[in-house]
Structures are given as C-alpha cells and as structure tokens.
Specification:
heterotrimer; A mainly alpha (112); B mainly alpha (497); C mainly alpha (120); A: mainly alpha; 79% helix; B: 497 residues; mainly alpha; two-stranded antiparallel sheet; 75% helix; NUOK/Mnh_C1-like (chain C)
C-alpha cells in the first residue's frame, strides 16, 4: 500500500494546486494512474515508429522521451487542466494547430 | 438520371421546413417526423447506383447535343470532360453510410419524440436539417456544395445544443460556433485555392487536372489548400485541437441529440477524409498527418475520458477517441486499411449512438450525470443495465460484436502495412476504453445506492428500449457477418489507393 | 505608380484574415470577437471574388451578336461570383445565430466579457 499512498498524495497535491474541488476517491486515483500509464506507454510505442526514418534517431528519441516523461510525472492532472473548457485556451490551441499544419504542409512537403 | 439520389437530401430538408411551419401542432409533428424518419434509411436501399447531375447538365462528352456549335477551344480541351453541374455520386459505400446515418437519425428522432413530453417541431427540424446536410456531404462530388452543407451541419449542431436547454448549453454553443467561424472560412480558403489552380470545384475534375499535369502537383498553393482543407476536416470531425469542444458539445446535448451529433461527426470525418485522400493522395505527407492526428485523438480522447466524473462527458471523449481508429485505417493507405477504417466508422456510429441512448436512460430516471452521486441502478431495471453493458462491450471490441471485427481488421492491416506499433497501440487503448466504460458502469449500476439519490418513478419509454434492441441487433449482425458491409466498402477503398 | 489591382486585393484579403484571427484571439468583448470573425469570412470572400477577376475582361453575359470565340476568350470567370453569393448568405446566417446567442448570454450574465462567460 505504500506506493499507492504516494500516488494518492501526489494527485491530491496537484489537485490542491489547481483548486479543483473534486474529492480524491479510490476510483479517481486509480483512474488517474491508469491514464498516466496509458499515456506514457502509448507515446513511447508511437515513438518507436521513428525507425522508419532512422534507427539511431529512434533510440535517442525513445530514451529521451522515457526519461522526460518519468521526470514529469504526474502528467495527467496537468494535461486535464490544459484541456479545460476555457475558450481562450481552446482558441489558442486551435490557432497553434492551424499554424503548425500550414507550416508543415507548406515547407515540410517541399523541403523534406 | 436517378431521382432517388437528390431525394435523399431534399426529403429531410422539406420535412424540416414543414415541421418548422407546423411546430405547434404536436400530433402532426409526431406523425410527419416518424413517416419521414422511416423513409430516411429506406431510400438509400431502394436507390440505384449512379450519378446525379443537377439541372441535367452532364459533361459535354456525354451530351453531344449541347456540344454542337461550341467553339473548338471548349470541345477540344479538358473542358469537354468537366462536370458543369453539381454532381452527386451514389455508389455501394455511400449506400451503407447513408443507410446507417438515416437509421441513427430515425432512432434518435423516434426516442426523442417519446422521451420529451411535449414534442417540439423545432428540435426535430434541426435533427432533419443536420441529417440532410451530412447526407449531402457524403454524396456530393462538388467541393463547394460540400462546404455549404458543412456550414449548415455546424449551424444545426449548434441549434440542437441550444434546443437541449441543459446547463451551460448556450456557452458551449457559442464556443462551438466561434470555432466554426474560424475553421469554415479556412476550409473555404482551401477550396478557393483549388478553384484558382484548377478552375473547378468538382472533385473528379480537380483530380483530373492534377493527374494529367494541368497543374503542378508541387505548387505551393496546392500544398496550402491541402493544409487548409485538412484543418477544416479536423473541425468537422472533432479531432485535436477540437476534441475538447466536441466532447463538450456531446455532453451538453440531450442523449438522443448526442447520438445523432456523433453520427454527424463520424460521417463528416469519413466524407471529408475520403475527399482529402482522393485529391491529395500524391502527397505521402497527408497520410502521415492523418496518422499523427488520429494517434493524438486516440490518446487524448481516451485518457481524458478516464479522468471524467460526468458520464456524458466521458462518453463524449470516448467518441472522440474512437474516431482515431478510423483515421488510422485511412492513414495506412492500403486497401485493407481503408476498408477496415470505413467499417470501423460504420460500427462506431452505431455503437456510440447505442451507448448515448443507453446512458440516456439514467438521465431520464435520475436527472443526474455526475457519477459520484449515482449508484445501485442495477436493481431498478436489470434489463436496461444489460443492454448498456453490451453497448460498452461493443465499443471495446468484445466478440461477437461488430467493433471486434473492424478492430481486428485494423490491427491486421497495420501489421501488413509494416507498422505493428499502431496495432499494439490500438489493442492497448481498446483495453483502456473497456476499463473506462467499466468504471462508469460500476459507479452507476453496481455499487450501493447513495442514500440521497432519488429515482424518478416513471417507466423508461418503450421507444427507447426498442431503439436499444435494434442497435444491439445491428451490432450482432455486423459482428457475425462483417462481409455485408466490408464487401460494399472494398470498391471505394480500391479506388482510393 | 500603378498597383496591380488584383495583387492589392489579395493583400487586403490576407490582411482581413489575419486581423480577424487576431481579434478572435486577443479581444475580450464578445461583440468585438464576432466582428473579428466576420472579417475572416469577408477576407475569404474577397479572395474568391479576386480569383474571378480578369484584366480587360468583359461581363459574363452572352449578348446578341457576340461571337462565341470572343466571349470565351474575354469573359471573366463567373463561378467565383456565384460561390461568393452563397458564401455571404451562409456567413450572414452564422453571424445572426452568434449575435442571438450573445443576446441570450447577456440576459443571463449581465456582461459580454468573454473571460467571465466562456472561461470555465
């Protein structure tokens, strides 16, 4: 139970910072933990697909991602805060995505 | 000429306008809505395959009478092949999509008429209008016509949210409309670039112009057009960065409204996605972009679903996450992958409607969506609980239900395409989907009932149960005999590679 | 110095779009946001109209006595104009719905600040 207590405490800390009023129950703690593991493993597996471009690049990126993600844990509460229903953050991400898409399609296709 | 093809779009629009006129007369609203609702899935089954040229203007090459007396610079050039009219094409894949969309629209309207005490003509009007718009998106071979219906679909979605009159529905509707006012002009700008380069808005003609060398495929304006249309597609289907607004939209609508709204998103995804693949298949980067966005949608959608305590929002995020599976199928670019992706689209539209209507019964009985305040509903109505559980099984891909077949095909396709990582991610996220669903199911149905929870003493309408059973039957049939659908979709997939 | 009218028009369209995006992102007043969003649509419409422009061209109406060859060579391209009309109608209806919702929100909250209404 030691590890589980650490997890619950850590989630509670983050939630207090974000002034979230929801209580931390067993269920929400395990859900957060599961989401965390899912996120990290999916990102790492997806990064393996870089092998199509270059093997060494893939190894470096996967290792770097692994260290970065572990160091940044817990990610999920922050990610949830970032994807809130606030219109300002929504429109910011929308315009960011528009810029990235146009840049990638315009320069990426011609130069890569 | 096949008159039934335009009728698929014209009938729901006419019905919508009529409903608006007679919206105070409850009985006539109900009768008209049910009759046209039954006709919606029936027409695509009766219609013959073919093309429909509005105004009867077929291409000059098929119409020698009209070509007479025209100057050589028209009849001797590519103009001879061009489509002067707005063209609708109806083939086997469109048949399946329009049929499923019509069926979901019918079930959603049928359920709404029995769950809402006073039948509102305006609500049904919006549902029919949206269905007509999305049907047109699926059928249209004219990209500007598609844009018009894209906007109409966005407006009717906003209308459905407002008409639901849930808490904060106006705010969500305004946010959605603001984002529409950014994304739709961007889509139009992309179309304008295509028009400027090829002088045409007919998709077949645009492809002809690109493939025959009339336009340089590496022209920067063409690449820009691809990016802009891609952005419009993200908005229409609710992929990241639009996933949070899309899930909010689902959660603010009433359950039957949400069931229809998600079908709109799925079919807009398919309709525009196919067009992007058709026009820009010469850019390998498009497929990479589709896969990246789909992966993002899957990861963000499903992990966010796990974090929610409101069950409507949770299903909303799951619906967005499941879209990623379709995108991966399309992005793989192989015939097997595209067929599997399109099959998954059909399955997802059915299953998510199933889940939304199923969970709608909880809202109907208690009026609460917060899972922290719910519990012990199994005792109330075990049969409905069983149906809801089966809907969750279907979404996670438990055999013998339909998503099992399509997800299996997707995994196979990703392995044959040389990207087994995608297969692993899909299996992993299916497990998490199942876990998310079971978490909600446990809190709502299985754990002891909280003392302060009040359950309203009214029966769940028979129409809701019938809808759930119909959707379950379709899930079972498609799960046992997937070739009914995949056989029809293969032709389209072959044409796309 | 004579500026190419088509080029100038394209630049105006681009400026309108960028201005609209800026307003949508940074302005707090909902009505101002709506005006910005209308700018985006207007910019795209202007772009479409400009596409159909033909230097020295004639109106695309086939007058009696005109030879088909001259008409085909010098008439400007009618498709963008037809499209713009439809697009303006759609834009106007979107605008009307947006303003309608803002009226309802103003009645409910007593403010049209986007930060206070849409920020949760």
């Amino acid at each position: 139970m030691r590890l589980y207590d650490i997890v619950v405490n850590r989630i509670r800390e983050i939630q207090e910072l974000s002034t979230d009023k929801e209580p931390v129950t067993n269920l929400s703690a395990s859900a957060t933990l599961a989401a965390e593991i899912t996120l990290i493993s999916t990102v790492l597996i997806a990064a393996i697909m870089l092998r199509k471009i270059n093997d060494i690049l893939m190894i470096v990126v996967v290792l770097a991602l692994f260290i970065a993600l572990i160091a940044a844990m817990p990610i999920m509460p922050r990610l949830k805060k970032e994807q809130s229903d606030s219109f300002n953050s929504m429109i910011f991400y929308v315009l960011l995505a528009l810029t990235i898409i146009i840049t990638l399609f315009y320069w990426g296709v011609r130069n890569v | 000429m096949n008159p039934l093809i335009p009728i698929m779009v014209i009938l729901p629009i006419t019905c919508a306008l009529l409903l608006n006129l007679i919206h105070t007369k409850e009985r006539s609203v109900k009768i008209l809505a049910i009759i046209v609702g039954i006709a919606l899935p029936a027409i695509p089954l009766l219609a013959n395959y073919g093309m429909h040229y509005f105004g009867g203007y077929s291409p000059l090459i098929d119409n020698p009478q009209m070509a007479q007396g025209l100057p050589d610079m028209i009849t001797q050039s590519a103009l001879n092949l061009y489509h002067p009219a707005i063209t609708y094409s109806f083939a086997s894949a469109q048949k399946i999509f329009v049929f499923i969309l019509g069926l979901i629209a019918f079930l959603a309207i049928f359920t709404s008429l029995s769950e809402i005490k006073k039948a509102s003509g305006v609500y049904a009007f919006l549902m029919f209008m949206g269905t007509a718009a999305v049907t047109a998106i699926l059928l249209s071979d004219d990209i500007f016509n598609l844009y018009i219906f894209f906007e109409i679909a966005a407006l009717s979605q906003v209308g459905i949210i407002i008409a639901s009159r849930t808490e904060k529905s106006y705010e969500t509707a305004l946010k959605y409309l603001f984002l529409a006012a950014i994304a739709a002009p961007m889509l139009l700008l992309g179309i304008a670039f295509l028009l400027g380069l090829t002088g045409n808005v007919n998709i077949t003609d645009i492809i002809y112009a690109i493939n025959s060398g009339l336009v340089d495929p590496q022209n920067p304006a063409l690449l820009m057009a691809c990016g802009l249309i891609f952005f419009g597609w993200l908005y229409g289907s609710g992929l990241p960065p639009f996933h949070s607004i899309k899930s909010a939209v689902y959660s603010k609508a009433l359950p039957h409204g949400a069931a229809l709204l998600q079908a709109f998103s799925v079919f807009t995804f398919v309709g525009l996605g196919i067009i992007i693949l058709r026009i820009f298949s010469f850019l390998p980067f498009t497929q990479v972009a589709i896969i990246v966005v789909s992966l993002l949608a899957m990861v963000l959608g499903i992990t966010m679903a796990l974090m929610q305590t409101d069950f409507k929002r949770m299903i909303g995020y799951l619906a967005v996450g499941e879209l990623g599976y379709i995108g991966i199928g399309l992005g793989l670019g192989t015939a097997l992958g595209i067929t599997a992706g399109l099959f998954q689209a059909v399955n997802e539209a059915i299953i998510t409607a199933f889940i939304f209507i199923g969970f709608g019964t909880i809202l109907y009985k208690t009026g609460i969506t917060d899972t922290n305040k719910l519990g012990g509903l199994m005792v109330e109505n075990p049969k409905v609980a069983l149906l809801v559980m089966l809907s969750g099984f279907a979404m996670a891909g438990v055999p013998p239900l339909n998503a099992f077949q399509s997800k299996l095909q997707l995994v196979q396709a990703s392995i044959t395409a040389g990207l087994p990582e995608l297969g692993i991610i899909m299996v992993l996220l299916s497990i998490v989907t199942f876990m998310t669903f079971m978490k909600a199911f446990y809190t709502i149905y299985l754990r002891p009932k909280p003392s302060e929870l009040e359950i309203k003493n009214k029966e769940i309408p028979r129409a809701t149960i019938i809808s759930l059973v119909v959707l379950l039957l379709i899930c079972l049939i498609l799960g046992l005999f997937p070739q009914i659908v995949t056989g029809q979709l293969e032709q389209l997939a072959q044409g796309l590679i | 110095m004579i500026i190419d009218i088509q080029l100038a028009s394209f630049f105006t369209a681009a400026a309108l779009i960028v201005l609209g995006l800026f307003a949508a992102l940074f302005l707090d007043n909902l009505i101002k946001k709506v005006i910005g969003l209308a700018f985006i649509g207007d910019g795209v419409n202007l772009f479409l109209v400009t596409l159909g422009f033909k230097p020295g061209g004639i109106v695309y109406i086939f007058l009696p006595g005109m030879s088909a060859d001259t008409f085909a060579q010098s008439a400007s391209y009618p498709l963008p104009y037809a499209m713009v009309l439809t697009s303006i109608v759609i834009g106007a209806s979107t605008l009307a719905v947006m303003l309608g919702i803002i009226i309802m929100l103003y009645k409910k909250h007593g403010t049209i600040s986007s930060k206070k209404i849409l920020d949760d």
